[in-house]
Amino acid sequence: MAERKRGAAFFDLDRTIISGSSVFVWGVVAYRAGMMPTRQLLKDGKDYLGFKFRGAGDAKTEAVKNRVLQAIKGVHIDEFHALGDDILQRLLDDVRHESRALIDLHDEAGRDTYIVSASPVEIIDGFAEAMQMTGAIGTVAELEDGVYTGELAEPFCYGVGKAKAIARVAAREGYDLDRSYAYSDSIGDLPMLEVVGHPVAVNPDK
């Protein structure tokens, strides 16, 4: 008898694993490093309060993506990575206790665990490692000679893009998506939730 494929567990990041916004955390750290103007940080702070309590729609997420890409355009990847330790600690401090317990539950059940986020992969790679998760699936910005161009290197990891990214990882690793789990707060992640057999709404938006 052929061995049955195992499932995996896929977690959105913002308002699912953490209570707030990973991109806003990046913005605060980037501002202190001179990569973000004061006016933009103040606007992001106002948007963050709305996101924290209501979530974000497609248009808002697209706008944040474009803002981040423009902020890092012309920046060397080493400058981005230099912000990593400060960003990582802030994210770890914001982890929801119930999400930590869910990740541990899946780990104990033998399922691999992944973060799936629209945030830049540079932000979430180290966070996934610190959380002792299997890996991270995020938005990948284009680099030329180690410098960000302001464009994407791969499709935006949001909406249908998340579902396609999960399907690629499942095909590569041999996961059975019917036996897999996905967790998110946002209706924007409906494609991600629909691609697995066990979708779960966590801290759902309105």
Strand-helix topology:
Layout: E1 8-11, H1 22-32, H2 38-54, H3 58-72, H4 77-82, H5 84-93, H6 97-108, E2 112-120, H7 121-130, E3 135-139, E4 141-144, E5 147-152, H8 160-173, E6 181-184, H9 190-194, E7 198-201
Parallel strand pairs: 1-2, 1-6, 2-3, 6-7
Antiparallel strand pairs: 4-5
In summary, what is this structure?
The chain has 9 helices and 7 strands, in the order βααααααβαβββαβαβ. It is an alpha/beta fold and about 210 residues long.
Query: What is the average per-residue confidence, as pLDDT, rounded to a whole number?
Result: 83
**Would you report the number of β strands?**
7
Please give the alpha-carbon distance between the first and last residues: 46 Å
Helices and strands, in order, run as: EHHHHHHEHEEEHEHE
Q: Which structural class best describes the helix and strand composition?
A: alpha/beta
Question: What's the helical proportion of residues?
Answer: 40-55%
Q: Strands across the major sheet, in which order?
A: 3-2-1-6-7
Please work out how many helical segments DSSP would assign.
9
Low-confidence stretches: 44-53
Strand content: 15-25%
Largest sheet: 5 strands, parallel
Shape: globular
> Over the alpha carbons, how many angstroms does the gyration radius reach?
17 Å
